[in-house]
Amino acid sequence: MPAETVSSLTGGRLRARRVALGLKQGDVAARAGVSPSYLNLIEYNRRRVPADVLARLAQVLDQPVGSFAEAQHGALIDDLRALAIGWPGEGLLRVEEFASRFPDWAQLVMDMGQRIKSLEAAIEAVNDRMSHDPHLSANLHEVLSAVASVRSTAAILAGPDDIDAEWQVRFLRNLDQDSARLAQGADALVRYLDSGGQIEAQGTASPQEEVEAWAEAADWHLADLPISPRLSSSARQLALSLQAEVRADIVAIPDSAFGAAMAEFGPDPLALAARFSTPPITAFRRIAFGAGAGLVMCDASGTLTLRKRIDGFSLPRFGAACPLWPLFSALVQPMVPIQQIVETPNLDRFLIRAFCQPHYPDGFAGPELRQAVMLILPPTSGSARAIGSTCRVCLRANCPARREPAILS
Amino acid sequence: MPQYCVLGDMMAKQILLIEDEVNIAEAIRFILARDGWQIDVLTDGAAAEAAIARMRPDMLILDLMLPGKTGLQILTDLRANPDFATLPVLMLTAKGQGRDRDAAERAGVSAFMTKPFDNNEIRAIVRGFLGG
User: Fold this and answer.
1) Is the ipTM of this complex over 0.90?
2) H/E run at residue A96
3) Which of A107, A201, A272, B120 has a C-alpha 20 to 30 A away from that of A46?
């Protein structure tokens, strides 16, 4: 056995065997041909044992050499050595002595080391998730944005300078909005983390936004599109409902006939509706989803219920839309087709066709529900009505329909 | 309608803030306008290029994540134009991750700040670039 392979734990085992046999250190040393002081150093692991000396001592103590050379705490020592890699300190070289003399402490150190490694791996995994998980990233972004707004706005209000009363009201309203948004974002984040990241699409986006993002990713070809498992349960219901409508639209206006009708009429939903004897809204959706137009729908409250974007026509993510949209003209004039060329603040022009369909799901005894729809068609020319997206970000300084001041100039 | 408190035209340097978070934009606009800077706000990344070319601001404050076109894309396009190669650009982001900062620095950002930010910090950065 090469001398360097002999464990320093050997000393402890030699001593234990000698004591068990009732032999004196001097007697054993003499019979093995070494000095008592040298054997003492060996027994207390102060000297490594040369192979030939170990062989003689083993013979004196009537035990095979292997029983002394084999480390009782081999695995632990190996683990401790691995744990100590990269840590400075001469003392760490005495790992075998440490494990031999304080095995429980050594095991505790080992357990703590493994715990640290486990936590480091978890942190790395979270970091990786933050980098690559779009839902977590979106949640964090939403929370941080709300925090940033709250902090900046609160600092303004708490600052030493006088603030105009109207601005105070405005900033307090912003704080209220952002604190609600923060609470919602934090809740979504906690639910996400509680679930280990398995709850999907639990972001701060509304179910409607989830559905729009899902549809947008498929370029609004929804008829055969699998319902994404990443959608929240509410969004899934909306997606299923929208998909059912789209499928019904295609049954009402089949693909082959749709192309021919578009060639004949162009993107005229009322002409299509008349040709195929469908409700006008079916034709609006069919054109928007099948021919690349933008589409906005709203209910009787003016709340936007569906937004299919088109380049150049900005749609508000939050809050009410521009009251000058033909959508709202149609909303107050059910069954009257509205056609209008509009011009955005960026001077892009669009042809808008809008229509409002009343519904009476509970018959004469029930309320009237309205569904207004606005088709946004590619840029065109002609006399146009100036419109915007939503007042707060609208660049039109002297708009007669303004509800609130713009933050833009 | 509330008015911003602008300290005259003594500095009159123009800052274009491109930020889609309206309440954040409003707060930044307020604190910088109160310092006397002229602030214009844009919320859509897609309109940035035209707005910058039209307004030729003295400084740009740019959010990283924008609809239409990201702040990084805007910055990259900006630096490719000799007219704006040295325009001070402060990048804001809620994603203060190292790779965002690295990408912004590679694209030629002048300063980088993560949200949430300190109002005085952003004021100091603006003063550092525009004087005053």
Assistant:
1) no
2) helix A95-101
3) A107
* Distances B66 to A307, A350, B17 between C-alpha atoms, Å: 18, 23, 12
Is A407's Cβ below 8 Å from some Cβ in B? Answer: yes
Around Cβ A59, how many Cβ atoms within 10 Å?
A: 13
Phi, psi of A163 (to 5 degrees): -125, 135
Q: Which residue of A has its CA nearest to B48?
A: A346
CB contact at 8 A, A67 and A10: no
Of A131, A141, A156, which has the smallest distance from its Cβ to B31's Cβ?
A156
Q: Which of B49, B60, B77 is nearest to B19 (CA)?
A: B60
Name the residue among A344, A229, A236, A156 with its Cα closest to residue B31: A156
The tokens of A332 are what? 């107050």
CB atoms within 10 A of CB B58: 19
A259 SS3 class: helix
> How far is B96 from B101, CA to CA, in rounded Å?
7
Q: How far apart are alpha carbons B103 and A131 in whole angstroms?
A: 14
The strand order across the sheet containing B14-18 reads: B38-42, B14-18, B59-63, B89-93, B111-114
**Token code pair at residue A340:** 């209008």
Contacts of B118 in chain A (CB under 8 A): 151, 155
Provide CB contacts within 8 A for A62, sequence distance 6+.
A21
Q: How far is A161 from chain B (nearest CA, A)?
A: 10
Q: Does A186 touch chain B (CB under 8 A)?
A: no
pLDDT in tens, chain A (409 residues): 334 334 556 777 788 788 888 888 889 999 999 888 888 888 877 777 888 888 899 899 988 877 776 555 666 777 777 777 666 666 666 777 777 777 788 888 888 887 777 777 666 556 555 555 666 777 777 888 888 899 899 999 888 888 888 888 989 999 988 888 888 877 777 666 655 554 444 444 578 888 988 998 888 999 999 998 888 888 899 999 999 999 999 999 999 899 999 999 999 999 999 999 999 999 999 999 988 899 999 999 998 999 998 888 888 765 678 999 999 999 999 999 999 999 988 778 899 999 999 999 999 999 999 999 999 998 777 789 999 888 877 778 788 998 877 765 4
Task: Report H helices in A159-229.
Answer: 165-194, 207-217
Place of tokens 């009476």: A360
Distance CA A160, CA A195 (A): 44
B28 vs A130, A152, A392: nearest CB: A152
What does the alpha-carbon distance between residue A294 and residue A313 come to, in Å, rounded to a whole number?
8
Quote the CA–CA distance of B56 and B40 in Å, as a whole number. Answer: 11
